[in-house]
Amino acid sequence: MQLPDNTWVKCWDEAMPIPVINQARLFNESKIAEEQMVDLVRPVLFVAAVVQVVQKGKCVRNLLNKEVLADSVYRANRSGSRDDFMEALKHLKAAELFLSQYSSLHQKLRVYENIGNLIEPPSEDDLFSFITSLIEDASSKRESIERNVISRGVPIFGASDGPLGNAVRIMMERDDVTGGKLPAPARRQYIMRWTVPRPSACSRLVPQRLFASIEQDEFRLCGAFAEDSVYI
């Protein structure tokens, strides 16, 4: 660089003096610092999120797959891959959604003993099974819409006279309901399912279904009947 007439000396002599504030930056130091900070903080945030979800998930017993959450976050922190972090984030979102649904339903269906109701409140085990069945049924309905499959719903044994039915009734009470009674139904619907040999007594048992909708001014009957096409 000290030799006379070399390229460096010529460029230096011919270059126009420009203040540093007006020169184009070689790189954006703020952006680089933010990226490095994100890379350092991201593993800590994911681990803290897993710990928080596991602590809150004690109410759902063994329904929360803690091993999958921990393994996905561990794999993402080890590899640093964006795809692994997105996979771990998907598991965290699913767990948080399940916990929020369970907590909301448990709070709404919980019956306190001081409300003056003659029907005893449901036990924690019955409430736990009922809420988890509701969540599973709702998720299966979303999946079955694409396959055009009808969900059977969640049965409430004892109807409104049972502990679970009473809890649902209290949850659905409105301000205009007096005496703890719901208004008269506007429509009654019945679904009957059975299996019989059809079209003859020697045929195989095939499923049948009949739907009835009864209103004050009209009624509808919809049937779906199957026949054995092999052993007629």
From TrEMBL:
GO terms for molecular function: GTPase activator activity. It comes from the Eukaryota. Residues 176-229 form the Rab3GAP catalytic subunit C-terminal domain. Pfam families: Rab3-GAP_cat_C. PANTHER family: RAB3 GTPASE-ACTIVATING PROTEIN CATALYTIC SUBUNIT. This is Rab3GAP catalytic subunit C-terminal domain-containing protein.
